[in-house]
Structures are given as structure tokens and as C-alpha cells.
Amino acid sequence: MIEPASLGNFFTIFFTSAMVIMLGALYALLFAFSRLKGDVRLMPLAYISYAGLLISTLFLADAANLLKHPFWTVIVAFMLVGYLLAPHAIWHLCVGTHADEHAEVGPVPLKDF
Amino acid sequence: MATLGMLDSANLNGGQKLAVKYFTVAIMLFGAQVLFGLLSGLQYLYPDFLYGVLDFSVNRMVHINALVVWLLYGFLGSVYWLLEEESQHEVVGLKLGNLIYWVLTAAVTVVVLVYLFVQIGPGKESSIWLINEGREYIEAPRWADIGIVVSVLVVFYNVAATFSKGRYTGIAGVLVLDMLALFGIYLAGMFYTTNISIDQYWWWWVIHLWVEATWEVMVACIMAYGLMKVLGVSRKIVETWLYIEVALMFGSGILGLGHHYFWIGTPEYWFSIGGFFSALEPIPLVAMVVHAVFDAGARHAKNSNHPAMAWLIAHAFGNFFGAGVWGFMHTLPQINLYTHGTQWSASHGHLAFFGAYATIIIAMFYLGIQRWRGGTWMSGDLPSNGWKWKWALGLLNLGMVGMTVAMLVSGYVQSQIERAIEGSSWMGYFAAQIHPWFVQGMWWREVFGVMFLVGFILLVWDLLTIGKGESRAMVSAEAG
Amino acid sequence: MATSQWWASESFWRKTAIWVTGGSFVALMFLTMDTIPQISTGSKRVPAYSVINYRISYKFDETRHVQVPVIGAKEPLFGKELNEEEAEALVKLGKLTTQSKNCMNCHTLLGNGAYYAPDLTKSWLDQYWGTKEVREVQMLEFIKDPSDKVHNSMGRRMPKLEITDEEARGVVAFLKWMSSIDTNGFPYNFKSIEQEN
Questions:
Q1: ipTM of this model?
Q2: Cβ(C160)–Cβ(C146) under 8 Å?
Q3: I want to staple C192 with a disulfide (CB 3.0 to 4.6 A). Which of B358, C25, C69, C125 is the partner?
Q4: B154 lies in a domain?
Q5: Does residue C186 sit within a domain?
Q6: In Å, how far is A1's CA from the nearest CA of chain C?
Q7: 8 Å CB contact of A105 and B240
Q8: CB B356 within 8 A of CB B212
Q9: C135 lies in which domain range?
């Protein structure tokens, strides 16, 4: 079911899993800022963060022996897709839920929708 | 008429008068937590210190029990704080609520005194009923368990009945159901069994379903109320987002319980469940990040309480790093096998409890004191530049981050030497404990612990003095 | 005027929150109903208390990549074979003693507890006890009065907790029984006391 990590991979695991979460948040943050300000130049930075997340996840998956088992490989794939789409979905939701308010407040950055 | 700048209970509504009592005890228990944490930290460095008088087990028990109880007092206080405004109705059983407050506080006092002066009992069920249940976090003896259940049922009745008679809002609905779940789950920890696997199975129901599910939703309710009050966000949006967060938190958190079922005898399929839902648990955090940015861009609200706002920001960061980053670093079973039950767990626990819960309750303290002083000015331009709250904020946060990193270093050594190389034997345990890195980690933890204590003292001083003699009234942010 | 989308409406998310919470809880109930029998005393993963009549070892399993408990030849605890009720009574006394003496606020059991003292999950099998011939006596003596045993260079000592001889026997029985629980390989790479004849 699992194959315990080997000692030599400890640091890789701790480091990359921290990076997964931090880059995931940075991606979400840059993505949201880019949409909010309507600043397209920020968007590449957001996707660079995601690319970092992707690389970290793959290193983590290798170090934690995740790719040797189908179940854990699916989890890795699921995480990669999930973290890619989550900020999009949540932004969509923000715009949707604030729709009434924005009508009153005035112009809002809806250019992407 | 509000008396500005004076501590006057005429400034508070009925529920809020009770709330500040809960807050007062919460702060005292917070102090006890810091004190007994420092004592147990010192025993790592000087094992003979208080040996045989207040042993590590006693100090550590008081340390973690004070934590649980002060956070619960903070939650109960927060609920009473918002109850009348949210329901637009007086608390239906305020006298009863006051009585229960005193009963609960008396019970807590007796429990702590028994912890400190009786400490242990013979290996009989009577010890579990009267002295100490000996199960981490829920050590309170069975008589106190029953007292706690009865007390919180009264609080629950008070809250549910007040909302029913007044206005039953979306926040009210979530809050009432969450309180019911929170208190119901406590029952899972109230029985004895010799089978330690079954014991720990239910024990985790209480611990996990509290801190990673029902407490999170409790905080979400308080935040929802706070966002309407402090930033003037509309109710419809706040409540929609409360439901979204509930769906995400409970959706990932309830079955996230699986990551505690790796090593207690439970079947291997918990690896899959724990792994999957642990991967999901950061999603609510991502949602908060995006929504916070969106919200910040959508309004330029005047913030009427700078200390509270600063602590809410500390909450966002603390929750993200403590629960998110520190949690995910060692959640996969492939690595958790080596970190489970080392200083890693302590490092994660400190930052997560502080970041996710202590911070928001401190923010509530500031909202409370502001109203208690008649709604005084607490924005910029405070006397002496508001140095006390700023230094308290800085020292408490820096102290906590320092402790967390110090324990992380110790835990890292432990996972390598004790767990991976020496194979978790007793000799392996001691080999790690005397490693210079481990020892230095424990020293730095104590140093940063003292910094935290200084921050705590400043916090109390500030809460006692902020807004005193202030003649300016707060700026209101509430939407029309 | 923007129109509200159904997926962004309050009522949709209220229902979703209720269904997700309810669904998760129902799933947890089913999992609990499946797990509890698998960890009940006398199951494959958590053996009956009378397992203390047998030798328990902890061996590497090639397919699971970790060590698992193996129940071996008859080796009654304290040289006296107990029936199921007697074994349960003894282990129960031990478990009650570990709770009333607050062991968990220094030690970890199955990895849960405090980190001031070693993990007790496989302490029955620890090399600290020397040989298997002297192990039981060593454990009894240690549990009853560990205060003069500075067994490490840090100077940390376990306090004397007024544990009676009978309670100490119970604790040893509890620890032996606990070492037979299949913990999915926790602790890993454990180096066990020599038990072969």
C-alpha cells in the first residue's frame, strides 16, 4: 500500500511539500491579483508559480515513492489538476457571488468573463 | 448614552456582558498555558527542575488543557458576543447563562487544582472519574466531562432559543448546527475501553473533528460576523461564502480524519483516505486567499479597529502556514511514519493552534474592549503610536514562529536519528535527544517562549489600557 | 445588472454545504462500522488479550515493505498461563494504570502523546531490557521505581508514581499485548530484543 521514504529523501520531501502549498498559494494570489487589476503581465508569473508547484509535486512524488503505486499516482495527478483549476473556479465564484453588489458599486474587473 | 473611554458595562448588551466574563477567564487560562509551557520546556533543559514536585507530565497536561479550555471560552464568549446583534433579540436565559458560566469556571478551577495537587491515582476506574482520565487533551476527569456536557447544553439552548425567538439568520443556522456537532463529538471521548486501538479511534474523533472541522467552522462563523461588522460586507455575500467554506472545510476535514488512522491498528485503506483528503485540505485555504484578494479589491472600507484587523491578518498567515504548510509537510504516510510522535508534531501543533485559533480570539478581545469602552477610536494615531499592541503582536508572533522553527529543527534530527537510523528504539530515542541540534532546538524554543511571554504580558497590559480616556469615537464601517 | 447564476446563489451553496457535510459524515459512519470490527479485541489486527501467553516478535514483511507483529511459540507472561478472562483483567489493570498515572503526557503510545520520553508501542520488545530472561523482572522493577535510574546522559528520569506490584504486572501485560497490534509498520526499522531460543 505504501513504501516508506528512505532517509536520503527526507529533506526533499519536507522541502517540496512545503513548496507545493506555498507555490499553490502564490499562484492563487498572483492569479487573483492579475484578474483584479486587469493586469495581464502578472498572469505569466502566476503560471510560473504553478510550474514550480508542478515540479515540486513531481519531486515529492518521486521522493515519497508515490509513483510506484497506481493509487498514489492518481492522487498526484488529481492534485496537479485540482490546484491548477481551483483558483479559476474560485475566482468565478467570487464574481458570481458578488454580482449584485458590483452592480451597485460600479465598474469591476470583469474583463475575463 | 455610551461613556467614551471608560470601562462601563452599560456599553454592552446582555450577551456581551456575559461574553467579556468568558473572555476574561480565557485570557487568564492563556496566561496559564504560557506559564506551564515554559515550565515544561525548561524541564527539557534541566530535567531535575521541579522533579517529583511538578513533573513534566503534570506541567504538560496543564499546558495543553489550558489551551483547549481557553479557546473554548474564547468561542463561547464570541458566540455570546454576537448573539443579540445577530438575532436582534435579548438572550433568552441570561441568568441561567451567568449561572452556568460560574459553574463551568468553578469546575475548571477544581480540575486544575486536582491536576496540580493530586496529580495521579491508583489504577482504578475511580481515578478516571475523579482525578485524571490520562488521555491527551481530554484528561478532564469523567465528573468534569459530564459537567462540561451539561453546561454546554445550556449554552446551546441559550443560543438556539435566542435565535429562534429573534432572527434566524444563515450564520445562526451554521452556528447552531456546528455547536451541536462540536458538543456531540465530545461524547465520543467519554468512555473507558481497554482496547487502545478503539480508544484512540474515538479519541481522534474528538481531537480531529474539533480542531480540523467544527472549530474551523466556528471560526468561519465568527469571521462572517466580523466581516459584516468591521468591513461592512453585505449579509448575502457573507452567508454565501460561509456556506462555501463550510462545504469545503467539512468536505475535506471530516474524512481528513483518515490521516490520524495510519498507525493505531486501523486497516490500511485509511492510508488512501487520509492521503486523498489531506491533499484536499489546503483547498479551503486557497479559496480564502483568492476571495480575500477579491474582497480587498472590491471595497476600500475604513477599518475601525487596527489591532483587531492586524490579528485577523495574523490569523490568515498563521492558519496558512501552521495548518497548511506545516501540516502538509508531514502528512503523507510515507514520511509520517518517521515524524509522527516527534517534535515535528509539536512544531505543527504550536503554529496551527496559535495561527488558526489564538489569533482570532485575540482579535475578538480587541473588538470586545473597544465596545466595552463605549466604542472608542482604535484606528491609527493612537497615543504613543499604539506601541503596546504593535509590540505585543510582534513579540507573540515572532516568539511563536521562533518556537515552531526551533522544534522543527529538533524534530528533523529526531525523525532521522531516532526513527530512520536507530529504528525508534529507546536507545535511538535518547541518541536523538542528546544530539546537539536537538538540544539547541530545545534551548531556542525556550528563548522564544520567553519572548512569547513578554508579548503576552504586553497584550494584557494593552487590553487593560487601550482606549482609556480616549475622547474620539470609532469610525463606523457598517454598511447602511 | 448582472444576473445571479445558480451556482453562485446562496441557496445552492446552503444545500451543497448540507449535502457535503451529511455525505462525509455518512461515509465516516460506514467506514467506522467497517473498521471497528477489524480493530476489536480478538481480531487479526488487534489480538485477544491472551496473546500475552505467547512470544511476540516484530518481523519485516516483504509484501508490505514494513515490519509486522508475529505471534510465536508459547511464552506465558511471568511464567503463568492465563485464560482469556484472567488475561483481560490483567491488561485492563495495566491500561487503567497507564491512564491514571498519566503516562501519555510524557510518553507516546501508538505514537500519540507527549515527546518527553520514549514511545511505548513496542517497548516490550526493546533491547533496553537486556535479554528476554531478565526482561520481565527488569520491567517490573523499572515501573515500580524508576527514580534512581538515570538511563541516559541527559539526566532525565521517570518519577516514582506509586505503582503497586500488581499494577506493574498489569502494565507489563498491557505493553506486551500492545506490541502485538498490527500498526502498519509503526515504528519503522525497529531493532528488537533477541528472543529466539
A1: 0.96
A2: yes
A3: C125
A4: yes
A5: no
A6: 7
A7: no
A8: no
A9: 49-178
